[in-house]
Amino acid sequence: MKNYFYISFIILLSVLGSGQAAANVQLENLRCEMLQNPEGIDVTTPRLSWEITGKQRNIEQTAYQVLVASTPEKLAANEGDLWNSGKVNASQSVHVQYAGKRLNSRDECYWKVKTWTSNGESSWSAPAYWSMGLLHYGDWVGRWIGMDKLSPWDQEERFSRLSARYFRKEFEAPKEIKKAKVYIIGLGLYELYLNGQRIGDQVLAPAPTDYSENVKYNTFDVTKQLKSGKNAIGTVLGNGRFYTMRQYKAYKNKTFGYPKMLLNLVIEYTDGTTEKIRTDESWKVTADGPIRTNNEYDGEEYDARKEMPGWNAVGFDAGKWLQAEYVQEPTGEFEAQMNEHMKVMETLKPVSVKQLKPGTYIVDMGQNMVGWLKMKVQGKSGDKVTFRFAEVLNEKGEVALENVRDAKVTDVYTLKGGGEEVWEPSFVFHGFRYVEVSGFPGKATVNNFDGQVVYDAMQTVGSFKTSNSIINQVYENSYWGIRGNYKGMPLDCPQRNERQPWLGDRPTIAYGESFIFDNGKLYAKWLDDIQYAQKADGSIPDVAPAFWRYYSDNMTWAGTYLMVADMLHQQYGNVKPIEKHYPSMKKWLQYMQNLYMDENYIMTKDSYGDWCAPPATIEDGRGMNANVKYPSKLISTAYHYYYLQMMQRFARLTGNEGDMAGYQALAEKVRAGFNDEFFNAEGAFYGENKLTDNLLALYFGLVPEEQKGALVNTIVQIIEVENKGHLSTGVVGTQWIMRSLTDFGRPDLAYKLATNTTYPSWGYMVANGATTIWELWNGNTAAPTMNSYNHVMMLGDLVSWYYEDLAGIKSSREQTGFKLIEMKPLLVDGLDFVNASYHSMYGLIKSDWKKEKKRFTWKISVPANTKAIVYIPASSEKNVTEGGKKTSSATGVKFLRMEGDRAVYELGSGDYNFVAK
Ligand code: RAM
To answer: Where is the signal peptide, in residue numbers (predicted)?
Structure first.
């Protein structure tokens, strides 16, 4: 498996300016937070990145030197026995590929870097570290163990119930320990203990995959937890997506069997010998522990009376436990998990706990969140507390559960009695704002509960505030919705009996998300999931991993494969995903063309149309089911054209130039066919004159040049007159609407859509109490069966518009990954300030602008080793100052030209304070 990652370090170094005194410059790489588990990677040529920060302006890297050593001592002595890059004259500071000695399984790599900049030479950075995983199948010893049967209390049917399996093994470590590492594949989910201590702070690990294609292993350094002498290792296995939630409809629900695991504990002794503790028949297992059932849809039941104190420590009497069984190995490849683990990322206190009737309470978290409820309780043995999780309440103030469909969303805790008991589930999560707590002994208060917010532990990289409160709240709701739906894959929703990684929910949304969360690794993993899910003939599913087997063949959902790869390149400057997936993308396009493109170059196959477009009025949508599909050839043909452009770009970026002409020629034919079929030149509209039809033709560049203006007028007419200032787009159209209006001259109208509070709009959701983003524009009146209050698909291109157009933080399309930053904030009436930041691969970018009566002030930060092109509103460059000085005398500022009402400058790195009159 090829993969890539970033290496962390924080370094302090002095840079000697030319002829100046030494100044303190920091060198750091905050991308480190992205790498959850620097232990056990299986990439033999990892890529290294570093971040330079400093007070001076115009810091540009001119050269670097990387040292990679096999021990910290060697590194300290500047001995790069694995790799000494020598001084490399290059400005590259991200994705620098390791080019040293061949790396082998379990190698340890300590590294540091030194840079030469336009402002002088740095000292060596602080050391950073990674270790190699088990690169070859043959590196693994032992066998897969499990327990391939049900217990009397389990049930295998539509609502599957399967208790967690507990495993243990005692062993002797006879000598003095130098180092110890565990490599574990625990499917579906595991918890790992050594000598009674939990290993790692990850939850719901490992990341879900189609286990028949690939399985993820995790690595932990357990040197601290292991002792010379007797030791005990314990694991708990939950079901996750392996033993799936609905054991029926085998044609749709993919399931993989009973939980199982493979574990290797590699102990290195100080005398140079190595010992491997492995899973085999000497392990003991029981399913008769406290976790009686765990089902992601239905919840977890925990009976504390069944606890087995000391089960994961030395000396426990496992006489009643069974011998572990050898079980079939999953067919999937073993791969190191490179995306972040899920963790408890935040804890919320309830805003209220109200009694509904004696013993039953409604806990209100004040926020629709994803995770679980942790409880503190005291009572007698056998008391049973039941939680039911809901996003909304009904008129009587009870939990409304219609919208979770047949998911039981119920956690049950049975007390053991005899003092305070603290509990949270291990193998489930819920999407909820409210929890009905029944059977609670005594009086429940907010002090009894914590809302544990769980998602992939990725860094929050963006911040965004404006003078408009609707925009701010929609942003906040997006933040909550996006992070909640990260579950080792991007889910559509976290609450009902679905929770599937639908491709069509993310094409453009993933791009917007990347401004808020450092989602590069998750989406790289998702591209792998998609590739693994591709059929041999080229078909790509609507859901990947294809836990629901939907291969409906369409351009919009499957095409997310291309769009996400493009996003990783644009935002992270990372071309590897495009390289890796190019052949599969090409194959998919070919497959669609062969099967569905007619002789007029119309792509005849679509599945969902402009999914969930809003009913014309809120009344029209009352009580209506939203699952009506309107397949559209216009949409599929327009997207085909768009992807043909993208494939030309990908071909160029990956050295497949030979493919470019073919894609270009076909694109021209598709464009002609599209206009023949769908363009009404007289009326200046496309298809049925739906907003989405027209937007796609405009934004994708399908419309004949001379008709562009007329088409823009049509679009404006629909929004302003027909829709009375509102959008009328579903999942497809909403992805292009904000930037189309902005790029084609009506940013004011985009701003209106962004700040509306009447139906249909994002602000309408806010006005109706939403704290996340709804699945439906009419979420408050539609039929409940398909009505999630926590979907992100309707965000369209809104979040990227916030950052790129309102804040003016955008990467150039040519120098991607924010190597060159384009800063051209929109100045629309009504918006007085935007204060935003984004932590790019190179460092922190800030844009903090304010409009006052006749003054425009703009504080900007540009990271070292990048440049920014900034567009300052001014009638002439003479009216602009920086730091109180003329711009012509400001360091790092270069006036380029006037462009309309903007003075355009190039900035080197540094912090700037512009004032324009
Ligand atoms: C629903 C989900 C999902 C969407 C599909 C087509 O089940 O809402 O978000 O992509 O339909």
So the answer is: 1-23
